[in-house]
Amino acid sequence: MLTTLKTYTVQDICNGFVYNELEGKGLFGLGGKLTIQPEYQRNYIYADGKKDVAVIQSILKGYPLGLIYFNKVADDKFEVLDGQQRITSIGRYVTGKFAVKDQNDLEQYFSGLPQELQDKILNTELLIYECQGSESEIKEWFKTINIAGVPLNNQELLNAVYSGPFVTLAKAEFSNSQNANVQMWSAYISGNVNRQDYLAAALDWVSHGHVGDYMSQHRYDDNINELKTYFTSVIDWASSVFIDVKNEMCGLEWGRLYEQYHQNAYNPAEVSQKLRELYADPYVTNKRGIVEYILGGCSDTKLLNIRIFGEADKQTVYEQQTITAREQGVSNCPLCAMGNDANHDRIWKLSEMDADHVTAWSRGGSTDISNCQMLCKTHNRAKGNK
Ligand SMILES: [Zn+2]
């Protein structure tokens, strides 16, 4: 890869700067010669009143902004390879999109700065490496650089590696915070639209976890019909089976749940009632497991992580059982006591026993001392497997 070190002033770079509010992107600069956010780049994420402000304050204090890399795509045509967040921050400031505090703690837009500070910003020189290489070289390199501040996450890297019409269309649908559906999707998907988390979920679902393969196969598709249809099917299914929306539903493996359970019929009213009972049950300590517990026919109680008996309760029940057992000359494990083998009168130590729900939790048994019995580990395991 060929690289040439150049210097440009802020004024050069901001010449013809365009920021698109709708797409959340800085588009062009350098008098039209520079594409600031090529398709494989992430959206602008510095507009948080901190990172963008820090860029401008660095310039005002004369601190270096770090190296910026351009990818030379044709004679006099460049794309920003690394530095788009900084450049977009500068462009947005110079074009009056946000203010920074001056030394008197007053918010100042660019146009309100004294002329010498405006000049200082515009004349600041930026160090730029212009790189020339094949697409695969550029992308390989892009994959390995650690971009100052916020490293690319996995989906952002995949978008870079598989850039093309498919990624462009997919981002317009799933990485677009202006999409009216995002609010509804956020009940099921955790993370941030701008950082590609929704796109990552959609791709994960449709590809059953083989995101890279899927993106590679569909890279040059001119539509995202399958991706969109599958995603909509999963969301529609989840929202029709579960009419209640709970915080714990956000970020579940909905794609896997859909694959595993969508052929089953559910009665949403019954599901809703069961869901509310389980949410209200103090013994259910893993609320995130409730959805799959219900989908699976309310049998796998491991998903719910039912509260276990406390040490003090176990100790109390152990003492009671052991006193009675010694009086009767039988084992302190009631199931051993019923048998005729060598353990019939064996007194187990507390550490050799486990607490058992006399009436199983799934049949309405509670996790308080009145429903606790101590069994030897063998019998407890045997009972648990039934
Ligand atoms: Zn036993």
Bound molecules: zinc ion
Show unreliable segments.
Answer: none
Which structural class do you get from the secondary structure elements?
Answer: alpha+beta
Number of helices: 17
Q: Could you describe the largest sheet, including whether it forms a barrel?
A: 7 strands, mixed
| DSSP strand tally | 11
Question: How would you spell out the order of helices and strands?
Answer: EHEEEHEEHEEHEHHHHHHHHHHHHEEH
- Mean pLDDT value: 89
Share of residues in strands: 5-15%
Shape: elongated
- Roughly how much helix do the residues carry, as a percent range? 40-55%
N- to C-terminal distance:
66 Å
Strand order across the biggest sheet? 1-9-5-6-4-3-2
Protein described:
The chain is built from 17 helices and eleven strands. The protein is of the alpha+beta class and 386 residues long. Strands 1-9-5-6-4-3-2 form a seven-stranded mixed sheet. The chain has a two-stranded antiparallel ribbon with strand order 7-8. A hairpin with a 5-residue loop joins strand 7 (100-101) and strand 8 (107-108). The protein is elongated. Zinc ion (ZN) binds next to helix 16, strand 11 and helix 17.
Give a short synopsis of this structure:
The chain has helices spanning 10-13, 51-61, 84-94, 115-123, 135-144, 154-161, 165-174, 182-185, 197-206, 211-217, 225-241, 254-261, 268-280, 290-295, 311-328, 334-338, 377-384, and strands at 2-9, 18-20, 25-29, 34-35, 68-74, 77-82, 100-101, 107-108, 125-132, 353-357, 372-376. It is of the alpha+beta class.
